[in-house]
Specification:
18% strand, 12 helices, alpha/beta, two-stranded antiparallel sheet, 9 strands, single chain, 7-stranded mixed β-sheet, Helicase, Ruva Protein, domain 3
Length: 273
């Protein structure tokens, strides 16, 4: 789908795009191919797409995958998709608020891949929701705001390292990141964008019960970023237990959360459990 095709379709249907819904449609054929390529699709793959818009990425996904489920919130765009893909047997279209739908329906996504140009306003919550599921997707290939993409793959002590980095990396190993210029979208967004690949860890770092505790520890540890993590954690855990855990793990009680690695947070979670 070319930019001229998008403009024509929107004009014909008198559709005014809504900024609050993050409706910036990727039309650059080269960038779309790079995204699909990052998905490493096979004819038997099952793909979840969130926010298909007018379907430029959807078109490529149904060509390469065995099954595609596309979830679109905007009823006006859904009407376009239903008409455009009326005869595509591999595609299931669903009109829904993707985040609310995921929160209410914890399906088994373990043999699915998420490949999507996510609505930027809800990209982070959607990714966290999927990552926290017991049966999370095997691969995430997502286009989102560059700033958020950097946070997803940030390493310890980096400026972008924080809660989002840890909640995602507990389940996923960061892969490739490539930038996508604003001119690749219609309308052009006010922010820079990037596509990032995240691959599910072959061996979970924590079990289901421990993951909930991990989230508590991380969120409390980063609740006041410039404060010592020990002082923040003792608001929720006994000082004696924390001291014993910090000593065993050789963590300085004056350390701040931004300097604590994923592996150290995992080990601390196991001690507190």
């Amino acid at each position: 789908m070319k930019l001229s095709d998008m403009r024509q379709l929107l004009d014909q249907r008198n559709i005014q795009l809504t900024k609050s819904l993050g409706q910036n449609f990727l039309h650059d054929a080269h960038q779309l191919e790079r995204i699909v390529g990052a998905g490493e699709l096979t004819p038997t793959d099952k793909v979840l797409e969130i926010g298909p818009g007018l379907g430029p990425l959807t078109e490529l996904l149904v060509q390469r995958a065995g099954q595609v489920l596309a979830v679109e919130k905007d009823a006006r765009l859904m009407a376009c998709l239903l008409e455009r893909f009326a005869n595509e047997p591999k595609l299931t279209l669903m009109q829904a608020d993707a985040l609310a739908w995921l929160q209410k329906n914890e399906a088994d996504w373990s043999d699915w891949k998420l490949i999507a140009n996510l609505p930027y306003s809800v990209a982070s919550p959607i990714l966290v929701e999927l990552a926290e599921m017991r049966n999370c997707p095997e691969r995430l290939v997502v286009t989102l705001q560059l700033e958020v993409a950097r946070r997803l793959i940030a390493e310890t002590d980096a400026d972008d390292y924080g809660i989002l980095s840890l909640l995602i990396q507990l389940r996923y190993e960061p892969g490739e990141l490539f930038r996508i210029p604003p001119g690749s979208f219609f309308p052009e967004p006010d922010v820079h964008s990037a596509c990032v690949t995240l691959i599910r860890r072959k061996k979970p770092l924590l079990d289901d019960a421990q993951r909930a505790l991990f989230k508590r520890v991380v969120k409390q540890g980063f609740s006041q970023r410039r404060k010592m993590m020990f002082k923040l954690l003792k608001q929720q855990w006994p000082v004696e237990k924390l001291s014993a855990a910090f000593t065993k793990l050789r963590l300085d009680e004056k350390i701040r959360a931004e300097k604590v690695s994923l592996e150290q947070f995992v080990a601390l979670t196991k001690e507190l459990a």
